[in-house]
Amino acid sequence: MQQPAEPKESHPTAGVDERHQQLLRRFMVLQEDERRQVARDLHEGAGQMLTSLLFGIKMLDGVASLDEVQRFLPELKSQVWETLETLRQLSVNLRPSLLEDLGLVSTLRSYVRDFGSRQQIEVFFTVEGDEVRLDPMSEITVFRIVQEALINAGKYSRATQVTVAMTFSGGVLTIRMEDNGIGRDPRILTEGPHGAPLGIWGMQERAAFLGGTCRIETAPSRGFSVHLSLPLR
Ligand SMILES: Nc1ncnc2c1ncn2[C@@H]1O[C@H](COP(=O)(O)OP(=O)(O)O)[C@@H](O)[C@H]1O
Ligand SMILES: [Mg+2]
Question: Is the CB of residue 179 below 6 angstroms from any atom belonging to ligand 1?
Answer without folding.
Answer: yes
